[in-house]
Amino acid sequence: MGGLRLAAITKFFTPPRILVFGFASIILIGAFLLSLPMASATGQPLSFIDALFTATSATCVTGLVVVDTGSFFTTFGQIVIMLLIQVGGLGFMTMATLFAFAFKRKISLRERLILQEAMNQGSMEGIVRLIQKVIVYSLVIELTAAIIFSIRLSFDLGWKEGMYFGMFHAVSLFNNAGFDLFGDFRSLTVYADDAVMNIVAMSLIILGGLGFVVLSDIIDVKRNRRLSLHSKVVLSTSAVLIIVGAVVIFIFEYTNPRTLGSLNGLGKVLASFFQSVTPRTAGANTLDIAGLRQATQFFIIILMFIGASPGSTGGGIKTTTFATLIGALITMTRGKEDVVFFEFRLAKERVYKAITLTMMALLLVIGVTMILSTTEDVQFLVILFEATSAFGTVGLSMGLTPHLTTFGKIMIVLTMFAGRLGPLTLAYALGPKKEKELYQHPEGKIIIG
Predict the structure, then answer these.
(1) Which stretches of 158-260 are DSSP H helices?
(2) Which residues sit opposite 341 in a β-bridge?
(3) Which of 205, 283, 273, 284 lies closest to 244 in space, CA to CA?
């Protein structure tokens, strides 16, 4: 009897469900810690809904905040947020694997299946080696950036605070979280024309958003290996989006006195590129997002919806999904049958999955936007920006987050959660178990277009 009950429990907790429950548990623990009086600088505990919002934003590496991180929270509260960002960015299963390595415990088959789901991999082959690389790459990149940030910030803040700020922002930016400690919701606006801060921050965001599979692939190229198709698509799509984004923002905002118009030549270029990179789900900004022209704000919404790449610390529908959709569009308009990238044909199921994921994401953003339009008394574009930022786990805001109603905060919390795990993972976790159909329906025809 006990064996049957254990089997039923094991059958219920599929890898997608374990991911959902795992992230939810981390968020609840984080919310409890952030609601303690010792986490608040004033000694007054943060309300549970605000603590839940902050914990979700940190664990889902979003960056939307209802209270200013730098001024409201104590060092304890800020460290809790930083740990939530690290666990959420790398994934709780990656962190659990780290402890397993530390205690020299073997990784079971079930744990490998969960890791495969968490890293969005097609098979379990080499999954443990990939996790080892994820941990090493993350620590090396974050430590390197923390040292550079610390040296630069020590000139402004002193060594002690400079090192603390350097470590926090290295973790936050690499994990594409967007939390900052500069106060007054300023993010990195005070360093809009600072080359060191901009270049290091953009490098962290890009490296975190490319995905660990791509990083591993790039490093392995030195061992006489060729880049995989996945890496080629990710790198080429990311490069195009960043360059095109920077050019569009530079043109739209060049004469805007509230943004680029107030900066010198180098500052304009740096700020344009930074605002193009940060919608890769980073959430940090060097320009006042509310001060951007509406055309620029809508363009950033599109970039946020696309997001980062699979297996990364970012969200969105992912660059590979976007590339597949564009490939399908080009294929159809040319009257061909197959989507081809770098002389490789994509399987039809990949195209169907890209369309399905995009439609689910689009419906989610539209639904949340419509609901928030009835509860929040602000302009439609502001609400659409907030909803897309939450889904893409970006963290950019036009100023709505601190003024959300309680219901609005709950909606954004759910959107961030869905965006971090992915609509398909949630659908697999919450839906019934897939069963293979034993028959096919006869083919029918409908008129399209």
Answers:
(1) 159-174, 195-210, 212-221, 229-253
(2) 344
(3) 273
Distance between CA atoms of residues 262 and 155, nearest Å: 24
Is residue 79 within 8 A of residue 41, CB to CB? The reply is no
Residue 226, helix vs strand vs coil: coil
Query: pTM value?
Result: 0.89
Can you tell me whether residue 246 is helix, strand or coil? helix
CA neighbor of 413 nearest in space, from 84, 72, 55, 100: 55
397: nearest Cα among 374, 420, 410, 378: 378
Asked if 19 and 115 touch (Cβ cutoff 8 Å), the reply is no
Adjacent-strand bridge partners of 40: 73
Q: Are 203 and 280 in contact (CB under 8 A)?
A: no
Give the tens place of pLDDT for each residue, 308-334: 888 787 888 999 999 999 999 999 898
Question: Which candidate, 14, 207, 26, places its Cα nearest to that of 117?
Answer: 14
* pLDDT tens for each residue of 222-247: 665 688 888 899 999 999 999 999 99
Contact predicate 286/249, CB 8 Å: no
What are the φ and ψ backbone dihedral angles of 377, each rounded to 5 degrees?
Answer: -90, 70
Instruction: List Cβ neighbours of 314 (8 Å cut-off, separation of 6 or more).
Output: 61, 176, 208, 209, 280, 281, 282, 307, 308, 392, 393
Please give the Cα distance from 168 to 180 (Å, whole number): 8
How far apart, in whole angstroms, are the C-alpha atoms of residue 44 and residue 59?
A: 23
Residue matched to tokens 């080892």: 132
* 304, 296 contact by CB (below 8 A): no
What distance in Å separates the CA atoms of residue 41 and residue 54, rounded to the nearest whole number?
A: 15
